[in-house]
Amino acid sequence: LFMPFTPTIGTGVFSKQPYLAFQSGEFLNIPIIIGTNRNESDIVYVSTPIDCNVEYLPFLEVTYGDTNAHKIAQFYQVPQTIGFFDCRNISVHVSKDSIFLCLSRNLTRNAVAYGIFVVVVFHFYCWSALNFVLF
Q: How many domains does the chain divide into?
C-alpha cells in the first residue's frame, strides 16, 4: 500500500503518513465509502503498443519480483508467445487493480479489523449511468 501523492507530513495536521496510520488503526471510527471506477487507470494507457515479451513481462519482474510477476502474468493471462503481442489493455487492467482496487480492498480490511463495521465498497462499472438522455 503506497500512495506517492499523500498529504505533507509534519504540518500539524498529519503526524505520520496516512497509510501507516491506517494500517496501525490510528483513524476515526466513522463510516467509510471507498471504491474504484471501471476506467480509473485509463490515464496510464499509452498510445504506442507495448510488447508483452520485450517490455511488459520484464516490467512486471522489476516491479513485483520474479515470483509475483509470473503469478500476475498468469492471473491476467499475459500471453507468452513468440512474436509481438500488444499488452496495453492488459497493462491498464493490472495498473487499475494494483493501484486502485487493491488499495480499496486493503483499506476496507483494515477498517473492519479495527472495528469500523460501516464500510461501503463500490465499483462503478457502467458509463450509461452518466447518460442523462436515458433519464
A: 1
In a domain, 24, yes or no: no
pTM above 0.70, yes or no: no
Q: Is-contact 101 34, C-beta < 8 A?
A: no
User: For residues 8 and 16, what is the distance between their CA atoms, to the nearest angstrom?
Assistant: 9
- Give the other-Cβ count within 10 Å of 110's Cβ: 19
User: What is the residue-wise DSSP string for 107-123?
Assistant: HHHHHHHTT---EEEEE
Whether the CB-CB separation of 56 and 91 falls below 8 Å is answered with yes
96 found inside a domain:
yes
| Structural domain contains residue 1 | no
Distance CA 61, CA 56 (A): 9
Calpha distance 44→87 (Å, rounded) = 13
- Tens of pLDDT along the chain (135 residues) come to 455 555 566 667 777 777 788 888 888 888 888 877 776 666 666 678 888 888 889 999 999 999 999 999 999 998 877 778 888 888 888 888 887 778 888 888 888 888 877 777 776 665 555 555 544
Asked if residue 50 is part of any domain, the answer here is yes
